Amino acid sequence: MRPKKTILCIDDNEQALSVRQFMLETRGYRVVSASNPEQALELFMQGGVDLVLSDLVMPRMDGNELIRRMKEMSPEVPMVILSGSVKEFERANRADAFLPKGACTAAEILDRVRMLIARKRGPRRNASPRPVIQREDNFSATPLTSVAAAS
């Protein structure tokens, strides 16, 4: 049995945090929760986190700043920002994905988590390699000047 992937969830709303934790744990993930960014940084520095799922709007430090600090420590760890107040993902932030709360289903969140963890892991070891398909172009070597002169 392979080890469970660890997800660090951060949200200042305890109810949202417990719902997210339950959703992820029932799908086989190990969840470490933090109700504030400072606690999240401490947990992240201990290592072993495979993905970060953070709220955007929090007191003292927003999700963008939290993720910026975490990316400085471990840029390879995928990070997702969730927000109920901001509907568009700003390119200025360092998150790998943005999901609007309420506008995406639990299945969409789980799909994104699975995809980002798989991307971090890389290709499966037991998967057979895809065959390489070589494409042959059937273009003639006619110079452009002779094509233009003929028209």
Describe the SSE topology.
Elements lengths: L5 E5 L3 H12 L4 E5 L2 H9 L5 E5 L7 H11 L5 E5 L13 E4 L5 H16 L22 H7 L1
Parallel strand pairs: 1-2, 1-3, 3-4, 4-5
Structure in a nutshell:
With 151 residues, the protein is an alpha/beta fold.
Radius of gyration: 22 Å
Helix content: 25-40%
Number of strand elements: 5
Q: Identify the strand order in the major beta sheet.
A: 2-1-3-4-5
Question: What would you say this structure looks like, in words?
Answer:
The protein has a single domain, classed as 3-Layer(aba) Sandwich (Rossmann fold). The protein has 5 helices and 5 strands; from the N terminus they run βαβαβαββαα. The chain has a 5-stranded parallel sheet, sandwiched between helices. Helix 2 packs parallel to helix 3. The protein is globular, with a radius of gyration of 22 Å.
Key descriptive features of the protein:
Rossmann fold, disordered C terminus, 5 helices, alpha/beta, 151 residues
